[in-house]
User: What shape does this take?
Amino acid sequence: MNNFSKEVMHVGEMASGAALTVPVYRIKGDSDAPSVYIQANMHGAEVQGNAVIFQLLELLKNIDIKGNITLVPYANPVACNHKNGEYTLGRFDPITGVNWNRMYHFDESIIKPFVRDSIGKDDATIEANFKQLMIEKIEQKLEHNIFGLTTGQRIAYQLQRLAHQADLVLDLHTGPISSKHLYCPEYAQESAQYFDIPHTLLIPNEFGGALDEATFCPWWYLQEAFTELGIKFSISSKALNKESFTVELGSQEQIDLDVALDDAKSILAYLQYKGVIAAPEYQPQVMTRYGCYLKDYKAYYSPMGGMVDYLAEFGKPLAAGEPLARILRMDNYHFGTDDETENGGPLHYLSLDHEVLPILHFASASVNQGTELYKVFTNFFEL
Ligand SMILES: [Zn+2]
Assistant: This one.
């Protein structure tokens, strides 16, 4: 196993002086095949990815590895340890309230000057220079920021420095109570069929601070800037191959090592397709895969407070008018039908007026009016 190594990355310090560290596992490939960066647990309660990384490491011991692979479990030690009672919080920095997965960096203004300087150079040189530029920009942020960084930025930028070194990036998350789903850049739609994930969100070229966007948007902008000048530079070509995904592995607050083994095999099928590994035994499963554009991914907010009985099954198209959930309001329970009608009664069925594909729902049965109850695909289609 001399191509396997482990390093401990220092990402911050607690008030007591205790070091915040993240383990980084690297496997060296034996060729210049595409490289991959995989991290898990940026959000504290989304722990299944750690189990998937465990299973990946176990499987990779017996696989012919072509491209470099970097694996980072427990990517955010602050979020990972952020408990309140029996629950893990860890979606937002408790001090600033900012979502931990909105702190990555990309400055679009680097694109135009870079393209101007790159005209006439070959693709491989452009690729190497652009990678270098992105890493330099992150290092500048990390090391030459006289006003300092927030706790979250310091963690995010160090992870991003590792991610920029790879061609392919997988950020492992989970939903609250959720089906498996994939955030996939629109240009990489073809790759979605290599994951054993039945639901894919196709996302546009808009940077909002997440790791997947921070790693694919720069390349997509670069391609577009060249295209505007009539120069062909394809980030989907075999030679360049730049893709990033957020992989939503199911529900928060739980790990399942058997499911993690399936998830690891699904990732290996994708890596096999991309040539990162030479292991043709890993192939995607045959399944119906649904796609949906991000603009058609809708949150449904509870029209009332109450106790929710979630009815709609994930991944099964729900016809218009069929109940999504029913809400129990015991304060409206009366011994007399007159009162019942007046107050709306104890049971309320919630439905939508068009067909949807339920993807995830809120983690608790008690909700306030306006709570994000379900997230659903609308205008979905088979991939
Ligand atoms: Zn997440």
